[in-house]
Design brief:
The complex is a heterodimer. Chain A is built from 12 helices and 8 strands. Chain A is globular, with a radius of gyration of 18 Å. Chain A has an 8-stranded mixed sheet with strand order 3-4-2-5-1-6-7-8, sandwiched between helices. The termini of chain A are far apart. By secondary structure, chain A is of the alpha/beta class. Chain A has one domain: P-loop containing nucleotide triphosphate hydrolases (Rossmann fold). By secondary structure, chain B is α+β, with helices and mostly antiparallel strands. Chain B has a domain at 26-70. Helices cover 51% and strands 14% of the residues of chain B. Chain B contains 2 helices and 2 strands; from the N terminus they run H-H-E-E. Chain B has helices at residues 6-23, 27-44; strands at 52-56, 61-65. Chain B has a two-stranded antiparallel sheet. In chain B, a hairpin with a 4-residue loop joins strand 1 (52-56) and strand 2. In chain B, 4% of the residues are buried. The chains are: A alpha/beta, B alpha+beta. At the A-B interface, helix 7 of A face helix 1 of B.
């Protein structure tokens, strides 16, 4: 039975879609059968980040409405074995599907895939309700900014009230130079406030921008962010991977600056 | 005097925001909650303000008496 994980954040623009694409690619690289689903109806993006935008025939709404069979809508990512994308609809809005339909779809997908990753839209309205309906757990993405962390806290509260527990935190776009100067909140500052377990801390890495430009997951590029995404995937699979390169309770700054120096 | 780092400003703003969001009240209400809890408890037990702390979490409110391990 596969696991359904929703990638969510509350605030837009913190890196949910990039995170979904990279965790999807990473889990598939580690031998898992993965489907990534773009649940942001009307603002389709995951296909673009993954570089699969020219292969779309059918979409999520077509599947839910029965216009096509699931298999017809799935796009196989040829660069990764066992990575599939179910794209969103660009011309429909969030009311085109219901939480019940998402629940049904994800429970069918559990039979066939090891991981079902849902890229959640920003906000806490119906799009969010749809995306979390069938989820077992969530990955909450935030950046070290007041607004993003505040929204993340709200989202965690909402997830918990929907009985979605066992959630994990990704802190994205950390700039160690600024953290050192006391001008950006550190990993410890953020986890202190949000108090859910950290699953990854990702530096603001140029390679992520380059990867997104090219429609290429950063895990396939030689990059710090790529390595961290792979570690996140291992932790999701239940492996106990130490946060050695980037995060450690003691000497975190020293270690992180080491990583940057190596690059 | 040293200028307060922007992180400490961010953290204190954030803490106040998060508390207001969690209990759907204003930061002023939070102060009142703390004061009244302190007052209620002090009627029944000996506590000092330094020992007393109220943390508002997502699913519970935690009252701590610092210095007492039991």
């Amino acid at each position: 039975m596969g696991e359904v994980i929703v990638i969510t954040s509350g605030k837009g623009g913190v890196g949910k879609t990039t995170t979904t694409a990279n965790i999807g690619a990473g889990l598939s690289k580690l031998g898992k059968k993965v489907i990534v689903i773009d649940t942001d109806l009307g603002l389709r993006n995951l296909d673009v980040v993954m570089g699969l935008e020219n292969q779309i025939v059918y979409n999520l709404v077509d599947v839910v409405e029965g216009t096509c069979r699931l298999k017809q809508a799935l796009i196989r990512d040829k660069r990764y074995e066992n990575l599939y994308l179910l794209p969103s609809a660009q011309t429909r809005d969030k009311t085109a599907i219901s939480p019940g339909q998402m629940k049904k779809l994800t429970s069918e997908l559990r039979e066939e895939f090891d991981y079902i990753l849902l890229d959640c839209p920003a906000g806490i309205e119906q799009g969010f309700q749809n995306a979390i309906a069938g989820a077992d757990r969530a990955i909450v993405v935030t950046t070290p900014e007041v607004s993003a962390i505040r929204d993340a806290d709200r989202i965690i509260g909402l997830l918990e009230s929907h009985q979605i527990k066992n959630n994990a935190l990704i802190i994205n776009r950390i700039r160690m130079d600024m953290v050192k100067k006391g001008d950006m909140m550190s990993v410890d500052d953020v986890t202190e406030i949000l108090s859910i377990p950290l699953i990854g801390a990702i530096p603001d890495d140029e390679q992520v921008v380059i990867g997104t430009n090219q429609g290429e997951p950063v895990i396939s590029l030689d990059s710090t962010a790529g390595k961290i995404y792979l570690n996140i995937c291992r932790r999701l699979m239940g492996e106990d991977v130490p946060f050695m390169e980037l995060y450690n309770n003691k000497g975190f700054f020293a270690r992180l600056s080491d990583v940057f120096r190596r690059n | 005097m040293l200028k307060q780092s922007s992180v400490s400003v961010a953290k204190s703003r954030l803490k106040s925001l998060v508390i207001s969001d969690r209990v759907k009240c204003t930061p002023g209400d939070y102060d009142n909650i703390c004061r009244e809890l302190y007052y209620s408890l002090s009627k029944y037990m000996e506590i000092t303000e330094e020992e007393f702390r109220v943390d508002i979490c997502r699913t519970h409110i935690l009252i701590t008496f610092a210095g007492d391990e039991t």
